[in-house]
Each structure stands twice: as C-alpha cells, then as structure tokens.
Amino acid sequence: MPGENPLQEAYLRSKARFEKERAKRLATRRPIMLFEALPARYGDCLFLTFPRPGDRPLRLLIDGGPAGVYVSSLKKRLDEEAKAFPAEKPLNLDAVMISHIDEDHILGVLDLFSAIQDADQRKAPRPYQPKWLLHNSFDGLLGEGEGSAARALDAPTVLAGLGGELAFADAKSLTARLVLQSYGQGSKLASIAAALRITRNPPDQRLLTLDAKAPRVLQLGDAKLTVVGPLQSGIDNLRKEWAKWKAKQQKKDSASLAALTASLDTSVPNLSSIVVLLEVNGKKLLLTGDALGDQVVTGLEEARIIEKGGVLDVDLLKLPHHASIRNVTPKLLKQVRAKHYVASGDGTYGNPDRATLELLEKIRPEGGYTVHLTYDAASCDATHEAWGRGRKGQEYVPAEHSIAEVVARWKDKGKIAVEEGPVKIQF
After folding, report:
1. Given pLDDT bands bounded at 50, 70 and 90, which one contains residue 10?
2. What pLDDT is stored for residue 168 in this prediction?
3. How confident is the model at residue 103 (pLDDT cuts 50, 70, 90)?
4. Which of 1, 108, 171, 420 could potentially form a cystine with 65 if both were Cys, beta carbons 3.0 to 4.6 Å apart?
C-alpha cells in the first residue's frame, strides 16, 4: 500500500525525474554529425555534415558514385544543403575525398568539379567551393611524376584524351579498358582541381597512406581522420608490377598490358583504397572504400589503434567494396564490431552479397545492431538478376543470392535491424 515504504517511493520518484530529464536532454541535444550514404547505383557516395552552433556545418564528401549519380543524387543533395544555408554562396565543401581511382567512386566527383569549372568559364558564380581534395593519384601510387603512366602507356595503349575512350584496338580485356579509363579520369580530376586552386592532400601534398610510426591525422573541425590505409606493402606490390611491365615494354605486346591491368584491377581498388577512422566527440566511423577486410585490420593494428588480434568497437562500419564477400572477411567482422553497418550497392555485380550478410549473422548472431542498405533488398535482387542474365557463371540463383530472403528473416526474428533506402544516420 502507498506510504508503507517511503524510501522506495522516494527512489521511484527520483528515478522518474531522472528519466524525464534524461529524455529532455536527449531531445534537445545538439547533433554531433549526420552521416548519409546517397543512392549511388553500384558505387559509393557518402556525405557527412558536422553542425556548429551559430555557424554553417563543416562538410565532408567521400566519393561521388559512377556516371549519372551526380545529377540523380549528389547535386540534389548539395542543392538541398544550399537552400538550408541561403547566405552561404558558394556552398562550402571542406573536404572531398576520393577513396581510390575507380569509375564507381570518382565519376560523380569529376562531374562536380567540371560543373564548378564550367561556371568559371561562363564567368558565373561557383555553385560549390571545395577546399581540400584528398586523393591518391595513380602516378603518386607508382612513385612517379604526374603524367608518367600516360607517357609509359603511349601510342597504341594511351587514352585518347584524359577522359576519352581507349585508343588501342588489340586489348581484349574489359578489365584493361576500365582500369586505364579510371587512370584517365583520375588524371583529369587532378588537372581540374589544380585549375580550380583546390588544395590537394594538405599540408604537403604527400600520398595519404598509413605511416605505422606516426599515422597521418587530418583535422576537420572537431573531427579527426586517422589514415589507416593503404598499407605500404600494397603500394610496394603495385610498384613492382609496374616496374615489371615497363621492363617488358621493348616488345610492347598487348598480352603484357592485359596482364598488368588485371593486376592493377586488384591492386588499385583493393590494396590502395584510402581507409580512415573518423572520430568526433566520442563517436567512431570506419570508412573503408574498396579495401580488403584483412588489410583494414592490419592497418588498425599497425597504427596501434587496436592490439594484434584485438577488437575495435565503432559506431559505424562502411562495409568495403559494396559488401562484396571478396572483401568482407571474417577477420574484419570479428575485430571491428559496429552498431551500424552500411552496405552501398544496387545489386549490380551481385553487391551487396548475400554471403556477406550471412557471414555477419554467423559472427554476430546475438544482433543488437542495424544493417543499412542504400537500396531496398527486393530491388537489389531484381538488379542482380538482370545483371547476371547471360553472364556465364554469374547468373542469379535465388537460393544463393537473394538478400531479400535474409532481410525478411532478420525482420521476422527481430534481433538484427534493417533499414532499406537512402541512408541517413544522426549521431
């Protein structure tokens, strides 16, 4: 009966007041950061904003997706941001980072920079103003001067202009074409950035790589970005392959070119992706590009962010390479435990991979975390099926590839939360 236990009643009243005040504080708490993964088809396009009282937010753009994403997603989001801050002309982008030179990451940023250049040429106001470009060029990864790869790949192999089609007729490898096209796109981006006077890799223009003795740290307001990849070993392997190819160029045979570009197709995205650990006000985000999962863990260990075999708890993990099982490894999921997992991809190339989702479930069956898909699972399955049709060995098999089945099971059990569609997470 009431009044029989005054101490307990006092405790309950105190607890109720505490919970009410806590809820009020949470409701009025100033957001630390907004993380967005925009719809970028089979690529990446991440937009992070960091609010500041009485001032505009700081902004970080990571990758811009493949062709068409600038118009369909990125420009719309930037224009929406500009409307929210009408006095800010042009809209400031404090840093633009290209995780690596691959068309599904770089083309949207190339379109963005081209739009700014076009405004300059028309003597019109710039719509956006990037301050920093964080980008490892192909030539920089090779350890040679800008334009060296284009000169080495001369005559029948060089790109017909920086953004053009490949001029060589003998190369049968689609991989060769895509890698060299990405090289041209990266070179064009670097050229436009220089013309627009955008500072690259401040303060000294060095490659953004892991220095195990003194990890590179970039400061963006309160946000700290520690570079934990690419590893020097990966860059060394890339340079060895390049040196081998150059030594064989007396014959200038297309077979050696195809062999080189097949190697580069692995080295450039998987071994040379910029990987950063972003920390701000106690929150941690691990952003991985297309890096190999085990390489990401090695980078964290070499940077002494975790002990060898240790575990890093983060608020968000951007699953590498659009959640491809070729890149997401058991080691990564065991040693980096996240509250939020982001899988970008629309089903093209089979990403996000069903095997990746099942691996995560196997390693963390207890749940208590959220998986975010940039497109709904049913759409991903439909795109995967259409993409795989006619591709021998890559045909869509529902029992093996359907992510909608996994998502439905997760929703039914309630342990693993799923969000489908454009990703927007406020911290």
Report:
1. low
2. 37
3. confident
4. 108
Reduced to 3 states (helix: H, G, I; strand: E, B; else coil), residue 219 is strand
The residue to which tokens 């990890």 are assigned: 215
pLDDT digits (tens, 9 = 90+) for 283-309: 999 999 999 999 999 999 999 999 999
Q: Give yes or no for a contact between 296 and 270, defined as CB atoms under 8 angstroms apart.
A: no
DSSP of 127-153: SEEEEEEE---HHHHHTS-TTHHHHHT
Count other Cβ atoms within 10 Å, centred on residue 45.
Answer: 27
C-alpha span between 51 and 55 (Å, rounded): 8
Q: Which of 262, 287, 263 is nearest to 274 (CA)?
A: 287
Q: What is the pLDDT of residue 43?
A: 95
* Per-residue pLDDT tens digits for 237-288: 778 877 777 777 655 555 555 566 555 555 555 667 899 999 999 999 999 9
Return the residue matching tokens 């400031």. Answer: 92
CA 347 vs. chain centroid, Å, equals 17
Give φ, ψ of 403 to 5 degrees.
Answer: -85, -20
Write a three-state SS string for 311-377. Answer: CEEEEEEECHHHHCCCCCCHHHHHHEEEEEEEECCCCHHHCCCHHHHHHHHHHCCCCCCEEEECCCH
What is the Cα Rg of the chain in Å? 23
Structure-token pair, residue 60: 């970080």
Question: What is the distance of C-alpha 177 from the center of its chain?
Answer: 23
Quick one: pLDDT at residue 13? 73
Phi, psi for residue 336 in degrees, rounded to 5:
-125, 105
C-alpha closest to that of 179 among 265, 93, 244, 117: 265
